[in-house]
């Protein structure tokens, strides 16, 4: 008789406030979302657990819907991977759902798209109640010019001009499927979806659109910047505060709940 334990793979939907952590990826100081989740999962599993995510977020970047998975020999009701794990997590991070999946599922490699939202307060005075939750730009911005620039960037391009120097992606070519710009009462929302994103790509694209909205970057200048494929000519990387991972796309065959959760703020209607 075979007494070996049979393992299972569990997928999780996770949300977090990035201000409390040094990003997603595990670090020696243990102050990351992955470290906190690994510790809480290990308590419930009664064995060491290491989870993997759909994508790494930087320090200060939030998630309305991150997707992770882990393997374990522990057999627990799905509620234990939600309520039980949350009881051992800091208040800034929470598991919102759990599903058992096959071993052919991988949170990162099974995904076919990622979505982000960036919230930018366009106001002469910096935010206080929303500090850390929105980006900020003090001078007036032309939302129409930013929409025109965003539309130009749609499609498959070499986004090297919007790629961090330390980016480890094998190819700078990505397919930007959505780049919407909406403005309400001084709060500007950028919504982006792509097959994948380069390191700092969203924050660098937002920085370019801010330049476009302030009149410092024309549409011809943006086209030239994209064609140059060199980061050093692009506008500075924008602050992480207003950036949210809002969704991850997977084939329906995995049977996951909706992996898109719009980021909502009190000022947004």
How do the helices and strands follow one another from N- to C-terminus? EHEEHEEEHEEEHHE
Main sheet: strands, sense, barrel: 10 strands, mixed
Number of strands: 10
**CATH architectural type of the largest domain:** 2-Layer Sandwich
Query: Superfamily at the CATH H level of the largest domain?
Result: Pseudouridine synthase I, catalytic domain, C-terminal subdomain
Shape: globular
**Rg (CA only):** 20 Å
Could you explain the architecture of this structure?
The chain is α+β, with helices and mostly antiparallel strands. It folds into two domains: 9-110, Alpha-Beta Plaits; 115-246, 2-Layer Sandwich (Alpha-Beta Plaits). The chain is built from five helices and ten strands, in the order E-H-E-E-H-E-E-E-H-E-E-E-H-H-E. Strands 1, 2, 3, 4, 5, 6, 7, 8, 9 and 10 form a ten-stranded mixed sheet that branches. A hairpin with an 8-residue loop joins strand 2 and strand 3. The protein starts with 7 loop residues before the first strand and ends in a 20-residue tail after the last strand. InterPro entries: PsdUridine_synth_cat_dom_sf, PsdUridine_synth_TruA, PsdUridine_synth_TruA_a/b_dom, PsdUridine_synth_TruA_C, TruA/RsuA/RluB/E/F_N.
Give a brief rundown of this model.
Substrate binds at residue 116. This protein is of the alpha+beta class and 269 residues long.
Task: Describe the protein's topology.
Blueprint: E1 8-16, H1 33-45, E2 52-53, E3 62-72, H2 78-86, E4 93-101, E5 113-122, E6 135-137, H3 143-153, E7 155-158, E8 173-184, E9 187-194, H4 201-213, H5 219-228, E10 243-249
Helix pairs in contact: 1-2, 3-4
